[in-house]
Specification:
By secondary structure, the protein is α+β, with helices and mostly antiparallel strands. The protein contains seven helices and six strands, in the order E-H-E-E-E-H-H-H-H-E-H-E-H.
Length: 211
Amino acid sequence: MNHNLITLSFAEESKAYQALAELKQAAAEGRVKLVDAVVVSRGFDGQLQVQDGASDGSLATPGWTGTLVGAVVGMLGGPIGVLLGGLAGSLIGDSVSLDKAGNRTSLVEQIAQCIPAGATALIASVKEAAPEVIDDLAASLGGLVLRRPVEAVQAEVDAQTAAAMAAAAEARRVLHEQQKAEWKDKIQHWKGDFSEHLHSLAEKIKDKRAK
């Protein structure tokens, strides 16, 4: 079975909930294996809201936290995700929108493009023997489907996390260098002043212990 991260996007919120219910039913019947799933919506202000979730086919919103689905949702809700979601102007179901998403290098960016402002989506980690089950489900509800291998998405999430940590470390280094240049004289003064106060405190503690 292929392990994929599926994004089913809809213009109507109710369709995303129906898709979640039908996906859980398909899992119960053994036609797919549902690992994790969550329903999210993006407001017209670009903000992402988590609506509902499932883990192994049961209603358990916390179940997807700490998983690949949770990591992707976290990225989609971050600054880049808000920007992409807010700027996506094409209507859900528009083939042009899907083409644009497919041409994006970043897989998370592709997913973000499939959840523009005003859309609701079901993001799920599933194991499927054939794509027809989910493709037919989406087609019956008028949804847009984006399917990417879990392994590829996980690799990108790991890379983006590492890049973010490296960027934060570099930002701290640059800030430290700027501070050293801008505050060099004052830092030396503060250092000496602090040493005097620290010595005074140590003497008072010494006297206290001697009593």
